[in-house]
Design goal:
The protein has 133 residues and is an alpha+beta fold. It has a single domain, classed as Trna Endonuclease, Chain: A, domain 1 (3-Layer(aba) Sandwich). It is 31% helix and 23% strand. The chain has 4 helices and 5 strands. It has a 5-stranded mixed β-sheet with strand order 1-2-3-4-5, sandwiched between helices. Strand 3, helix 2 and strand 4 form a beta-alpha-beta unit. Helix 1 packs across helix 4. It is globular and about 40 Å long.
């Protein structure tokens, strides 16, 4: 099994998770669109779709969050049902957390860089959402 940049990024976030956080990587070739990782803890659950990109050099260039239609539909439907879903778009310098369907709104490279959170910080947010850190 090859370990691409997205899986390497996910692993680099996971190594900072609180011990009380359970995570399960999802892959189902018969049911597409399911978020990449399900997290569970005493406070509830969280579903995160991860993407990994190279950030455009020009600040005004729109960052492409390459979600498939199946992924968009799955995330939207779970969100509309009251589930905790987010998208994390990673890059070599960290990641940007998209909540409340913010992944559907365009973001330029300059704003993306301003919103970057280090991998450890992403793990803290996950941990706080499901297990009080």
């Amino acid at each position: 099994m090859s370990r691409g940049p997205e899986n390497t990024f996910i692993a680099s976030v996971h190594k900072h998770l609180a011990p009380a956080v359970y995570s399960m990587k999802n892959h189902n070739e018969y049911n597409g669109g399911i978020a990449d990782v399900w997290y569970d803890g005493p406070l509830g659950d969280l579903w995160i779709e991860y993407k990994f990109i190279t950030v455009p050099k020009r600040d005004d260039t729109i960052v492409k969050i390459d979600l498939s239609e199946l992924q968009k539909n799955w995330l939207r439907d779970r969100y509309d049902n009251g589930r905790n879903v987010s998208v994390i778009v990673g890059c070599k310098d960290g990641g940007v957390w998209f909540d409340n369907r913010e992944w559907e709104e365009p973001i330029n490279a300059g704003e993306f860089r301003r919103c970057l959170i280090p991998r450890h910080g992403l793990a803290v947010i996950i941990s706080e959402r499901v297990a009080r850190g």
